[in-house]
Design a protein that fits this description.
Strand content of chain A: 5-15%
Structural class of chain B: mainly alpha
Number of helices of chain A: 6
Number of helices of chain B: 7
Number of domains of chain B: 1
CATH architecture of the largest domain in chain A: 3-Layer(aba) Sandwich
Largest sheet of chain A: 5 strands, parallel
Strand order of the largest sheet of chain A: 1-5-4-2-3
Shape of chain B: globular
Number of strands of chain B: 0
Number of domains of chain A: 2
Largest interface: A-B, 29 and 35 residues
Shape of chain A: elongated
CATH class of the largest domain in chain A: Alpha Beta
Oligomer: heterodimer
Radius of gyration of chain B: 16 Å
Order of helices and strands of chain A: HEHEHEHEHEH
Radius of gyration of chain A: 20 Å
Distance between the termini of chain B: 17 Å
Chain lengths: 151, 154
């Protein structure tokens, strides 16, 4: 097995090089340095900055499915799920108008909901930003969660 | 039994089949690197940038190793690379299952989005579950056979 390692490494290297070349030369590639969910116009904010904004009165919007928001949320966050955006937005619009520091989050780097909801808000004239890497980033910093159950 | 495992025809069959599976599995991912990256994110194992690197390099390694298996050049080394990949896939699947992460399409052979889910393959075949782990264990045994068992000289 050990004698195979050099050739195995060569195979992996050749495959990886082919992959990198294809990504940069084929025109089908993407920017490897950031989340693939980030599109032009998306503005990301780190958990640390978001915390500072919260203290200054920023409003968080939870883009996860409603059941998740019912269990726990960033303090003061309103429920604005991607799946029921139109309806939830219509109900929340008056409150959103009072606060133009909007931060949208979802359940981590693997979910696109915060990006989609922020884009829909921007399309309606609300300058919403996205919490980078979502709720796990917030929890990793040890910031508080509101875990009181909601109906 | 050991004679059967050393049969050149068995080795040829397993080698070409395994190679074809890996070449086939790489094609959809190569056609849509960003789409495959989205699927790697769903596994929630590596973080975004490392997932991007995996999404771009993994299909290349699958393609090269699969082609070598089919044409029969460096076949035992290619089989060892395939075996190593399968071990990583199985470990990642166990990790995902243990944490209860919901992956609706494993991204094994297709990068189709969940919303555009076709009726075939069904959800239990596409997702990360026991079917996936069993399938990978079967392929892993074939790969290990190719690595460690010398075929009989015919």
């Amino acid at each position: 097995m050990v004698t195979r390692l050099p050739r195995m490494a060569l195979i992996v290297l050749a495959g990886a090089l082919a992959g990198f070349s294809w990504n940069s030369l084929s025109g089908k590639g993407f920017d490897l340095s950031q989340s693939v969910f980030v599109q032009a116009g998306d503005q990301l904010v780190s958990a640390r900055d978001a915390r500072a904004w919260l203290d200054k009165g920023a409003l968080f919007l939870d883009a996860r499915p409603r059941d998740f928001w019912r269990m726990s949320r960033i303090p003061g966050a309103l429920c604005l799920p991607e799946e029921e955006f139109e309806q939830a937005f219509a109900e929340l619009e008056p409150r959103l108008r009072q606060n133009l520091n909007l931060i949208v989050y979802c359940s981590g780097y693997g979910c696109e909901s915060s990006h989609i909801v922020a884009r829909q808000l921007r399309a309606r004239g609300f300058p919403a930003v996205i919490l980078d890497e979502g709720l796990p980033a917030w929890e990793d910093e040890g910031y508080p969660l509101d875990t009181e159950a909601r109906p | 039994m050991s004679e059967l495992l050393r049969a050149p025809r068995l080795h040829l069959l397993l080698r070409v089949l395994l190679g074809a599976v890996f070449v086939y599995a790489s094609l959809d991912k190569i056609a849509d690197p960003a789409g495959f990256a989205r699927i790697v994110y769903q596994w929630q194992v590596l973080g975004p940038v490392a997932s991007n690197v995996v999404a771009v390099t993994l299909p290349g390694v699958e393609l090269v190793a699969g082609l070598l298996l089919i044409v029969g050049v460096w076949k035992r080394d290619a089989a060892a690379v395939v075996a190593a990949m399968l071990v990583v896939f199985i470990a990642a699947a166990v990790f995902v299952l243990a944490r209860g992460v919901d992956v609706d399409n494993c991204g094994c052979t297709s990068v189709a989005a969940a919303g555009a889910a076709p009726s075939w393959p069904p959800e239990w075949m596409r997702g990360v579950g026991w079917f996936l782990i069993t399938r990978n264990l079967v392929m892993l045994s074939a790969a290990l056979l190719l690595v460690f068992v010398e075929p009989e000289k015919s």
